[in-house]
Amino acid sequence: MTVKSLLLAAVALLAGVSTAPAQSQAQFQDRVFRVSNGVSKEHPMGNGLAAMGACTLERTGGKMRIQPYWDGALGNDLTATQSVRSGTLEMVLTSTAPLTAIIPSLGVFDLPFLFDNEEEADKVLDGKAGDWFAAKLPAVGAVNLAWWENGFRHTTNSRHPITKLEDFQGVKMRVMQNTIFIDTFKELGSNAVPMAFSEIYSALETKTVDGQENPYNNIENMKFYEVQKYLTLSKHAYSPTLVLFSKRVWDTLSAGEQTVLKECAAVGRAEQRKVNREKSKVSLANLKANGMTVNEIAPAELDRIRGKLAVIYDRHSATIGKEALDLVFGELKAIRGK
Ligand code: TK8
């Protein structure tokens, strides 16, 4: 080191300015971030978390570890989210639906038949609309690292095939703890019973409820086929998954650590969506192989059901809010070209 550079370093030191190269400032500390899941470890959420965890270990020289917990061991969507908000839990993978009491505008994703396909969902969630919703989370104590996928929801029950609107009449249907889902299934004529995900299997087994609605992967992952005879391919809603991180913990991390988490959550997103969609096809076949009677609803009848549910949009638009509705429907119009 020349005399000149020594003098410059001394001056910088006195001025409190680090002379270390930028990249070494991203000091990675030994971290273990626990993540709560309602599903079991064989679910594609596990593939996403494995990819995300491999990424964080690689990017931090083995310092930052993602530690999944399964089957609601650390709470259900809502209670685990409350733990994340309080800072007693680092992460949770949760559907948006149970959080609408905290952020009402998320209810837009619960509107029946909002999305027609995954491509639309990805474009809306990964674009300015998804960013708009994510920007609301720090105010309630969370940071959304990325949008992952729960998926398109279908209906199962133990009483009879649902082939037409009238078949919903009187069916006791478990729904997520969400006012729009409760209202939707009441409008169809069902007795909507809000319940946490972890309670579904025993409620179906004891006939406390007749049916429930979830993506194929969840129906298989939780073995609902053991206690449900009929699967109707209603595709009545698409559920996004939030990868929520505790803001209290987030604020203790360096900028470098925060960047690794965000970028690795995006790596996990690609893997989780890919496996979720691949597995969804196999899962439907497995449900049939496990004895479920599967039926589709005729297009004309599905239009009739969609028409019946149009009122849900009117009844919940005020709660969701004009800005969220205009944003999502504006994005969908741009995507669909109409
Ligand atoms: C799992 C839940 C589940 C959801 C439900 O934690 O509750 O029916 O579809 O995926 O988020």
From TrEMBL:
Domain of life: Bacteria
Signal peptide (UniProt feature, chain positions): 1-22
Organism lineage: Bacteria, Pseudomonadati, Pseudomonadota, Alphaproteobacteria, Rhodospirillales
PANTHER family to which the protein is assigned, alphabetical: C4-DICARBOXYLATE-BINDING PROTEIN DCTB, PTHR33376
Gene3D superfamilies reported in the protein's UniProt record: Bacterial extracellular solute-binding protein, family 7
Family to which this protein belongs: Belongs to the bacterial solute-binding protein 7 family.
Entry keyword annotation includes Signal: yes
Keywords per UniProt: Signal, Transport
Pfam families: DctP
Organism: Azospirillum oleiclasticum
InterPro entries for the chain: DctP_fam, TRAP_DctP, TRAP_DctP_sf
CDD domains: PBP2_TRAP_YiaO_like
Protein name in UniProt: TRAP transporter substrate-binding protein
